[in-house]
Amino acid sequence: MSGDVKKVVLAYSGGLDTSVILRWLQETYHCEVVTFTADIGQGEELAPARKKAEQMGIKEIFIDDLREEFVRDFVFPMFRANALYEGLYLLGTSIARPLIAKRQIEIAKQVGADAVAHGATGKGNDQVRFELSYYALNPGIKVIAPWREWELNSRTKLIEYAEKHQIPIAKDKRGDAPFSTDANLLHISAEGKVLEDPWVEPDEFVYSRSVSPEQAPDKAEYVEVEFLKGDAVAVNGAALSPAALLTKLNELGGKHGIGRLDLVENRFVGMKSRGVYETPGGTILHAAHRGIESITLDRGASHLKDELMPRYAELIYNGFWFAPEREMLQAAIDQSQAHVEGTVRLKLYKGHVSVVGRKSPKSLYSLAHVTFEADQVYDQRDAEGFIKLNALRLRLAKHARK
What we know:
With 402 residues, this protein is an alpha/beta fold. Helix content is 40%, strand content 19%.
């Protein structure tokens, strides 16, 4: 085993699991380890990860700010599709994995590494997402997944290993964590431990990005989001970069208790799992995008997009971001967004976001045609033939079955 790998790039957070993995790689594979930590808006100080890697003898340490790339090249394309997995989940964890994997493969090429490693367990979706992305981008790369190889199959064993090898552990990690979290600029997720019984309502301490709707302001707040070619470009008239825009919407959504989701979902590996998600800015953005599409997108294109969306969302959830079918669907979705521009006004109030206004220079909405008052553009008598033609097969079927 040890002779197979000379240099490995590890996706490294600096936490207990990846710190143990770092030392385990050195001991098991006797190889050089390069650490890579991605800043995708998780809101944590990343300097400790660098310090810890240095303490463990790592010479090549990469800490990259990928927030703009994350929102611009991954979150926004996904939101053009209005993607929801199983009708509810805005795919916050799923969409971050291909970016991390992409950068890992780039670093591996840059430093001459022949392997990459991740800290995902053998039970979850992330191992699939990481590895499908690795292989799509570098078919010959060797992948090391310690959780599928080692005997350290509990938190107790991880802590014992860390203490034995003098790996620094944050004090709050010495007991069982109440739940596992994953965060980025789009969302934060929580699962496991106190959340494993799907009948039990999550305690308020599970949530960290939003106030409870009950504690949200008693007065509604209005926000305007401006779009160009399907992407949000401004909030309340102020032009913002993709990451800055999502950050702003997160602040607004969190303040009003928007974006909480308690979901039992179907993992790709076959089991059901319960996750609690907070996606405040994404929930506002999703509603706003559908709002601007409602007046700028043709009926046929709109309905076809809605038919394609579940398939598209499933591809992202299952880790097929770099698959040709996702890219094919993306091309169709992006084509549909050419005239999706204008402004949406939304009302934020106690956990709810509502579209209350929309306008666009490319609007397909015609007051002249839909008014209940007298008009000069629509002959209501035309509807009679339209209805009779559509009813013809129904009438024939009824006659035939008498």
